[in-house]
Amino acid sequence: MQRLLRARRYKAASQSSLGSAMLRAISSASVLLLATSIAAHAGGDRALGKKVFNRCIACHEAATDRDKIGPHLLGVVGRTAGTAESFLGHYSEAMKSAGAAGLVWDEANLAEYLKAPKLKVPGNKMAFAGLTKDDDIANVIAYLKADPKP
Ligand code: HEC
What we know:
By secondary structure, the protein is mostly helical. It has helices spanning 2-43, 46-52, 93-100, 107-115, 117-120, 134-145. The radius of gyration is 26 Å and the shape is globular.
């Protein structure tokens, strides 16, 4: 009887340590998953971004250099703010002076502008409230970065 009890206790103990090893394995797997989803997020998804761009398309063209209400966004990633040649006569003073002061549309600046256009460049005339979801922002930047040609 004593031996049986001891054996049972041993079994229980080994099961629970197996259990905690499994838990550890599961939690490190989920940390890994989380890390990959953050990496994917930082990269953005250009196919999804093309859909997000539907919200910009009334005012912007990204696949050609044709201006609409807003400047064309072909090659905008890396461009200095307020410097699309064909739109020079239409930019607000605010956008042109932001560019003159050194604002370049790198990914970080674009993300801030698309989140809160009026905060990033006070006085600019883009009539757009901003994108609220970080995923949408990362994806639309990935789309713009792909320099989408027709
Ligand atoms: C209602 C029209 C409108 C919508 C919608 C709109 N924009 Fe704009 N956008 C403008 C205008 C107008 C400007 C020029 C602002 C200025 O000169 O002050 C501008 C400027 C910009 C600039 C700066 C370009 C440069 O050459 O410096 C970027 C980048 C931009 N928009 C991206 C976007 C994206 C991405 C979206 C969609 C998520 C979007 N915009 C939606 C009208 C719009």
